[in-house]
Amino acid sequence: MTPEERIHALGIWQGPIDIVPITGGLTNRNYLVRDGAKRRVVRLGDDIPIHHINRQNELAASRAAHAAGISPAVIHHAPGALVLDFIEATPLSPDDVRRPETLARLIPLIRACHHDMARYFRGQALIFWVFHVIRDYVANLKAAGSPHAPLLDELLAKAERLEEAAGPFEIVFGHNDLLAANFLHDGRRLWLIDWDYAGFNTPLFDLGGLASNSEFSEEAERLMLETYFDRPLTGDLSRRYQAMKCASLLRETLWSMISEIHSTIDFDYAAYTAENLARFERAYRAFEQDH
């Protein structure tokens, strides 16, 4: 069945529909569907165990995010399909996220995710523990005979050093994929979307991911951390944060290595792997020099 046939088969439409692909998804395929005067976003994607993606968890997180006032409403769901209300909005770019005035507006949204969503989440909840994900990715890459196999033992040893350095851990409900494009601006307010990886985690993983994904300067990182925690940055917090930022970059690198083998989406994963591996090694060297 084609994606268009799957969308028609949902059986929720009031008449003829117009379906337009939305570019950018790497773990699902997204479509804008016009149904008369209404517009909906349809996300098509099955469970991806190799990436720890569970669509029932994504559904529960999407509902909780809407209840917390930070994400659009869930209109319908079916196996492998999630239908969301469409918001007329523009995704942010890394340049947008780096602006101090934008960052000041993003922090309350991230805090709402971390501290409000758990009140609304229903059913079994997942934990997204980046160091477990890293270990699982390494095991799967070795089993698959990845061409990156000669690098894996050293990367795993670095991950173990980062896990030791990153504690003690506060636990919140994390988004765990804070790419700039997952923030939308509708002209009045900001929204946070795409809950594929949602689960309990340390807030420093989201903050490290936000900074690494949008390539923050040290000044922007300090502003983010001091705004989020509402206190001056200490050496202890800086150490734990830098360790989690490195872990975020390593996880992204291994995610891409796995995707080189398993993904069917047309994307240059090899180049993405090389880019993220270089960024991880730079961040890890800086972490070792500072700590």
UniProtKB/TrEMBL annotation:
UniProt cross-references to SUPFAM superfamilies, sorted A to Z: Protein kinase-like (PK-like)
CDD domains: ChoK-like
Gene3D superfamilies in UniProt: 3.90.1200.10, Phosphorylase Kinase, domain 1
Pfam families for the chain: Choline_kinase
Matches recorded under InterPro entries: Kinase-like_dom_sf
PANTHER family in the cross-refs: CHOLINE/ETHANOALAMINE KINASE, ETHANOLAMINE KINASE
Name of the molecule in the record: Phosphotransferase
Organism: Rhizobium mesosinicum
